[in-house]
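FAQ
Q: What does a multi-component entry look like?
A: The components come first, one per line:
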Amino acid sequence: MTELIAVEDLAAGYGGPSALEDVTFALRRGERIGVLGPNGGGKSTLFRVLLGELQPLRGRIRSAGGFGYVPQTERSRLDYPVTALDVALMGTLSRVPWWQPIARAERERALAALERVGLADRARKQFGELSGGQRQRVLVARALVQDQPVLLLDEPFTGVDEPSAQLLELLLDDLAADGRGILIATHDVEQVARWDEVLCLNRRQVAFGPPEETLTPAVLAETYGAEIVRLEGVPAALLPPHHH
Amino acid sequence: MPLLLGGAVGVLGAATAVALAGRAPEIGRDTAVGIVITTLFGLGVLLALSQAAPPGLGQLLFGDLLGVSRKDVIVSATLAGLVVGALALLHRQLLVVGFDRSTSRALGAHPLLVDLALLGLVAVTVVIGVQALGNLLVIAIVIGPAAIAALLGGRLATMMAAAAAIAIGCALAGLYLSYYANTAAGASVAAVTVGLYLLVRLGASIRRSPPGLA
Ligand SMILES: Nc1ncnc2c1ncn2[C@@H]1O[C@H](COP(=O)(O)OP(=O)(O)OP(=O)(O)O)[C@@H](O)[C@H]1O
Ligand SMILES: [Mg+2]
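Then the predicted structure of the entire assembly, as tokens:
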């Protein structure tokens, strides 16, 4: 099957009113889906349900395999005695049984992953002594080491400088070209316009589809709430003609 | 030996109680440790004061470093070997869960298993140490060397090896101290450990503060 994830009429929450409703979308091989939404819109909640950390209140999720995962804010302790390489190697836990020692090939794979995020020269540095953006990239390298068919990236560009962000974006393009499916939560509308599909969440699914259909003023207004819409970020070509 | 066995069962029970109590969201892990230890300590004092207290309970409280038999040493060494083996097996999981508990499951770790295993291993370690140092001083040799190694820095595996080496060094130094200064053996080992910690701590803070401020 080419569908890596198929989600149908999903609802999820934390006990109170549901944090997310009416979510229906599919992620196919080679696709990058940008997940847009305001703070509290339910992006991380969607990832948590997909990962199985949170039980859905309703709906169905079919998925073809495991997930590589880059969490949003790194909640990792900065005084923890690990190097960047150690953190990248943590990604092996989802493939190599936990009681087995790490083989040389895995070490090389982790070094290659650090190289792909532009941190080859920082492999032996203590994780806590890296800058915030570098730590974020180490976590992306860890997800690469996980080597799963689907990647869930929760705001991976936060705190990452412009050159590194470009590197990351090219990396995502490569991974998609390899046939992986990628779900990326972000606040950057301009960036989302370059990807294959857009999922707009505001406590429920506002829209899902290709950027040229979803990045309309009406949808963005509904996604972000009318009072704070700023459309400077959207390429003019995306706006329907009658709005010009 | 039955006393040690009973102690082991008790400690494992306490470890499980701590793990389970700590999972209740309204009780923090530190609080759980506090509650369980205080409860059991009170229970222990009650039992120790009763007429029917088994002989040797005093030894359990204060240990007898110079009185350990050959058999005790063999049992301790075997248990210590098992602890080291289990730590090696668990190392990758320990690393992930300790680093970021909330995403550890998504990475393929089993946080509850790691918690229980770690508490179990601490329990076995305490049982080993109790024979020599007793219930009260054992804390010094379990926590002290690890705290010293943490101050020295490095990666987790190196830190663990360093802590073990420091513990052995402190034990030997403590024994010499007790021989020449004619002090109690267990207390001397604990004192050396605590003393070394304070020294290293002082050294670390002098090294870190900029010149002129030290
Ligand atoms: N652990 C939790 N317990 C209770 N409510 C939560 C929890 N986590 C999130 N929520 C609530 O669920 C809603 C959606 O949160 P979520 O983290 O999914 O938003 P988000 O789209 O990721 O936002 P952001 O852009 O800030 O990361 C919010 O209203 C939030 O308060
Ligand atoms: Mg979020």
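Q: Is there any commentary attached?
A: Sometimes. For this entry: The mean pLDDT of chain B is 84.
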